[in-house]
Amino acid sequence: MAFGSKGVENLDVRWGEEKIEEVKEYKYLGMWIEKGGSWKKAKEYKLRKARSALALAWNMATRGGDMSVRGATSMWTALIRPHLEYGAEVINNHNDYVWEEADRLARKGGRRVLRCGTRLPNDAVLGELGWMTMRGRRMFLRLSYWSKVLEMDDGRWVKQVYEEGRARLERRANAST
Fold first, then answer.
1. What does the alpha-carbon distance between residue 61 and residue 74 come to, in Å, rounded to a whole number?
2. b/e for 94-130, b at 16 or more Cβ within 10 A?
3. Which helix (H) or strand (E) holds 52?
4. Angle at CA 150, nearest 5°, toward 146 and 152?
5. In terms of pLDDT, which residue wins out, 7 or 70?
6. Gap between the Cα atoms of 74 and 51, Å rounded
7. What residue spans define the domains of the chain?
8. What pLDDT shows up at residue 96?
9. Long-range Cβ contacts of 117-123 (<8 Å, 24+ apart)
10. Which pLDDT does position 3 carry in this prediction?
């Protein structure tokens, strides 16, 4: 994989004598990475998996009889929410702050947990269950990961990449003043 803020054009990458072709998208560790830095396909994939998990989990819950709010919340936390949050620590897109489809699915799941209708305000659904918005969860996950990076040993690659990126930003800020 080759990354660049201005794009990587006409890059001749080889493995021995064989040229490695450039592709528009690539699936790595379960995340779709698209040329140009878009996460649209990854988000669509995650949303599709979460919707499927919600339907399966809800069918399990209704077949087993009445499930408590605590049990249904645990089911949401363990079986559905991870699909929406996978990779949230590294996805950084200015459009990521508002992922209405994920929030809509979370509210739908919350309404099912509470067994209430669509007239109950969104904030009441989240507040009653003690849930954050999906944006809030993604920000929380990013901050948690950032804290882990800061605490890493200086020899770790992730820490070195972070420090180099930080140094570049500082040099760029100092050059513009």
1. 11
2. eebeebebbbebbbebbbbbbeeeeeeeeeebbeebe
3. helix 40-63
4. 115
5. 70
6. 17
7. 39-176
8. 57
9. none
10. 57
